[in-house]
Amino acid sequence: MATRIRLKNIDSLYRKAKEREQSGDWEAAEKYYREALAVRQNPGTWGVLGWVLYRKALREGEGNFSEALAAAHEMRALAIDHRSKPLLAIADCLIGRIHHDAGQAELAERFYCESVEARLRPETLVFLGKLMEEAGRGGEAKRYYQQALQVDPGYREARYNLAVWYRAHKVYDEAGRHFRKALESDPEDAGIILQLASTLWHLGKEGIKEAKSLLDRLLRRQPLNLECRLLLAFTYKLLRQSHNAELLFRLTLEQLPPDSRAYWSFAWFLGNDFKEPVEAEILFEKALETPPQTGAAHYHYGQFLLARQQPGRAQELFRKAAALGLEKAKALLHKERRGA
After folding, report:
1. What burial letters (b/e) apply to 183-216, b meaning 16+ CB within 10 Å?
2. Angle in degrees, CA 64, 67, 72, rounded to 5
3. Omega before 292 within 30 of 0, i.e. cis
4. Alpha carbons 84 and 102: distance in angstroms, whole number
5. Is 93 exposed, middle or buried (0-12, 13-18, 19+ CB in 10 A)?
6. Which of 149, 150, 309, 326 is the most exposed place for a label (fewest CB within 10 A)?
7. Long-range contacts at 123-130 (CB < 8 A, ≥ 24 apart)
8. What is the pLDDT of residue 338?
């Protein structure tokens, strides 16, 4: 009788914890998981507690993952005691992920690899691939994504990351093939449609036409999707329909909330296609005053000014773009310093 009551209490605590977890109330979820652990030690409960503490640390943004790591290591110890390789693989993956977000790449790689050794899981292989890309080990990243697909050909995250890898390495036909495969499980995924459309730009006139068709359909479903509007405008430009592109840019500025991306994209278009530097400069200035600020507006404005023989102001903008984290600007300044 006492055992049944105890199990019923644990079930109630799990249910409450899960509800709080789903609502993002990490503190309450932590409380209920700890209460469940006080009733019965369980590796799975330590694992979900570690996950909750990890999410809580990410939200707080202070980089303090010590509690999350402690919970994940408790799960690991119990998994070893129970001789459960599936649980050990999950615990090691969680530990690797925490180290990954803490910027401890060597420890992250160690635990990801130990997780893979315990049991091949496509999720862990994708995390390893991302870690390799961050470390500049692109060939290894590609192999991990491919291995994840061998384990589970339907694992969408692996398919998507492999497509992004091919795109970054300018293998556009393979990138397009994998983006299409990733869309099979959710044909209306806007993010992948946008990635596929901009990849198709590199596959000749038929590819550009297909991109236009994809973006037209997406815009009918999501008329306020800024990225779709901007990509469609640039697709018109590639199809040599510059007046359609201009009209869509102007409608976007009228109909959607102010956004730096809309201003600098239209400014770039006007400066390069219509040779209207005065309006382009006005729009670039608006882009610098409007969020989000990622450095792209500064970079493209700098290129615009450089072409108009204003290197001093252009260099200021490139430095600002680099300070905002734009890799292209960092590479440009590095190249100039080396050439100086």
Report:
1. beeeeebeebbbbbbbbbbbeeeebbebbbebbe
2. 120
3. yes
4. 27
5. buried
6. 309
7. 123/93, 123/148, 123/155, 123/157, 124/89, 124/92, 124/93, 124/96, 125/151, 125/158, 126/155, 126/157, 126/158, 126/161, 127/93, 127/96, 127/97, 127/100, 129/158, 129/161, 129/165, 130/161
8. 64
Is 0.85 topped by the overall pTM? Answer: yes
Q: What is the pLDDT of residues 109-157, one digit of tens each?
A: 999 999 999 999 999 999 999 999 999 999 999 999 999 999 999 999 9
Residues in the chain: 340
What tokens appear for 79 in the block?
A: 């998994």
Single-letter amino acid code for the residue at 286: K
DSSP letter string, 208-271 = HHHHHHHHHHHHHH-TT-HHHHHHHHHHHHHTT-HHHHHHHHHHHHHHS---HHHHHHHHHHII
